[in-house]
Each structure stands twice: as structure tokens, then as C-alpha cells.
Amino acid sequence: VFGFIAGRTAPPGKRLGHAGAILEKGSGGIEAKLRAMADSGFHLIDDLDQIAPAVGKVL
Known about the structure:
about 60 residues; mainly alpha; about 40% helix
């Protein structure tokens, strides 16, 4: 499973559509979410242009 979180560069406390809905105050920051994904076995993608190369490495 590959994971990507949009809105990583969103200013703290600012709601930006879907990313703002997920990163609500008190619900865990981006680092906690990334750690949980990695601990669950996700291959984390930092940028959308990394998807194809990451999939190629796994296959």
C-alpha cells in the first residue's frame, strides 16, 4: 500500500479543504499520521511525481 498526504505545507491552524478537515486541532499532526502509516506498512510518498518510481522499486 502506498500513502500520500496532501496539504503537508499548509500553515498550522489554517483549514484548506480536505486536508484541513483531516488535520484538525488536537487530532494529531502530520508527523503522527505519517508515523502511523509507516508503522502500518505503507510505502510513503512525499511528492506525487514519486509514485511511479516507488511502485517500480516495489514491483
